Amino acid sequence: MSDIWQRSFYIVLVIVITALLWMIFGAVNALVFCSFSLLWMVFHHVRHLVALERWLRVSDHTPASIPAGSGAWDDVFAHLARYVRQHSQSQELLSLALERMQRVTSAMPDGIVILDENNRIEWCNPVAEQHLGINLALDAGQQITYLVRQIPFVEYLAARKYSNPLILKQTRQQGIIVSLQLVPYGYKQKLLISRDITRFENLETMRRDFIANVSHELRTPLTVIGGFLETLSADEPVNADFNKRALALMSEQTARMQRLVEDLLILSRLENEQNKVNEKTVNVASLLQNILQDAESLSGGRHHIKLNIATQDQLLGSEEELRSAFANLVSNAIRYTPDGGEISIHWETQDGRGLFFVQDSGIGIEPEHIPRLTERFYRVDSSRSRETGGTGLGLAIVKHVLNRHQARLEIISRAGKGSRFNIWFPARRMIQ
Asked: Could you give the 3-state DSSP secondary structure of residue 278?
């Protein structure tokens, strides 16, 4: 109530003065004074209203830009300045919160896309840009289906059943498999969360292939052994030659399964991250002498095998694992080199790094097969590999041993011209 009387003070004052003038100077003079006073008050308010309107039209609403006022308008503009300061502080806090939120979501390993009620892109983080092949600067406001055009995604969006994620192979990013899930929130808005599951899908594929390959590798030996056991268990007598041949084949297939199981156990041990490398100084020259003897026994005089030791430098590592890696490369060279071929085993240093390599004059490898040679059970010629007694796990074991020793495998080969398998050891593992 006091504010009303305070704002009405000048009007009351004009009325009082007008009444006094009326009594003293007459009605005409009193009305002239009253008219001019009211016109001045109207002009005063109009001038401040125009100033307020101009201020409202500008984009920079800061307390310093508020026009100066007089009379009642001074209080109005003071209240407005206080409101603007509070609003600016709130805006600053909201901007900081939004900036923090964007930094947090940008650091997330998952992609985040904010969609409005019409499925238009409002915002996304850099991970989502990579997963979905979009660009926030160019695609903000665009329909998400204009950019992610796969039919399964369009159907997923239209079905409005978001309880389960959608697995999608992203065509814009070749080789990337993403899991997409929509989460409704707010007023008809949605979060589109994307996650790169390529590694998990590859692991699942490897698991399925591994089970299928192991089953396939074991089926033939078990079939052979089971068939002979069924025959030998029959009531009909069999001759001694058949018994001898059956026992030889069963022993051969049993040995094959034993090698397979042993290689699987070695791989399992190498892949176990808890199983640390038992490092010690390895005398490579002595180790290769033993491997040479084993190689000559495996070859049975069918190949010309030579050993070239160009350095007496030793290695820091696991002797058992290194023996397995070196022996696998040498035995592969023997298996895939025709009778009368040459196989050479080398140990030397180059630029401070250790180099072990096996070179043969065997059948060689086509270029398209080389990148996949270290995969489990991968064979260039599966029938020949089984005839020579290979399990298909040798180079996979080599790869894991080298990874544990920070070494690198290099394969140089040409079909019909032989192969060379290089193992490069880092300088920090060399001991002079």
From this structure: coil
* DSSP labels, 335-363: HTS-TT-EEEEEEEEETTEEEEEEEE-S-
Of the candidates 171, 172, 198, 168, the one whose C-alpha atom is nearest the C-alpha of residue 180 is 168
Geometric angle at alpha carbon 28, from 26 and 30, rounded to 5°? 70
Round to whole Å and give the CA distance between 334 and 360: 8
pLDDT in tens, the chain (432 residues): 455 665 667 777 778 887 888 888 778 888 888 888 888 888 878 887 887 887 777 766 676 677 777 777 777 777 787 887 887 778 777 777 767 777 776 777 788 888 888 889 888 888 888 888 888 888 888 888 888 888 888 888 888 888 888 888 765 666 788 888 888 887 788 888 888 888 888 777 777 777 777 777 777 778 878 887 777 777 666 677 777 887 888 887 787 787 778 777 777 777 776 677 778 999 999 999 999 998 888 888 899 999 999 999 999 988 888 988 898 899 889 888 888 899 999 999 998 899 999 999 888 888 888 888 888 777 776 555 555 556 677 888 889 888 888 999 999 988 888 899 999 999 999 888
The rounded distance, in Å, linking the Cα atoms of 272 and 142 is 48
325 within 8 A of 399, measured Cβ to Cβ: no
Would you say how long the chain is, in residues?
432
DSSP letters spanning 155-216? HHHHHT--SS-EEEEESSSTTEEEEEEEEEETTTEEEEEEEE-HHHHHHHHHHHHHHHHHHH
Give one word for 389, left, alpha or beta, with left for phi > 0 and alpha for psi -120 to 50.
left
User: Which of helix, strand or coil describes residue 425?
Assistant: strand
Neighbours of 321 (CB within 10 A): 22
Phi-psi region of 93 (alpha: psi -120 to 50; beta: other; left: phi over 0): alpha
Q: Other C-beta atoms within 10 Å of 168: how many?
A: 20
In sequence order, which residues have a C-beta less than 8 Å from that of residue 297 and are 6 or more positions away? none
3-state helix, strand, coil in the chain (%, to 5): 55, 20, 25
DSSP letter at 406 equals T
pTM above 0.70, yes or no: no
DSSP 94-146: HHHHHHHHHHHHHHSSSEEEEE-TT-BEEEE-HHHHHHHT--HHHHTTSBHHH
